[in-house]
Amino acid sequence: MVLLARLLLFVPSVIAGWFVSREDVSYWIIAFAIALVFIVLTIAFELYALPLLRARLKR
Question: What does the alpha-carbon distance between residue 53 and residue 8 come to, in Å, rounded to a whole number?
């Protein structure tokens, strides 16, 4: 479970590192916000896009 959390926060922390210095106080807040966006996009894909793709493959 810890490995999954680290993987989910790795990419957002790299992206946040492009825009904000690691020494900045808001670094982890920005990384957390980016992680939340990734989580929401993953859930949206699972709920909407994946069933449409499965329906197309059944035809």
Answer: 25
Report which residue type is found at 5.
A
Q: What is the 8-class DSSP label of residue 48?
A: I
Q: What pTM, to 2 d.p., does this model score?
A: 0.69
Task: Decide if 7 contacts 35 (C-beta within 8 A).
Answer: no
Structure tokens at 37: 């966006």
Residue 54 has pLDDT above 80, yes or no: yes
Buried b (16+ CB within 10 A) or exposed e, 26-56: ebbebbeebbeeeeeeeeeeeeeeeeeeeee
Measuring CA to CA, which residue among 45, 9, 58 is closest to residue 29?
A: 9
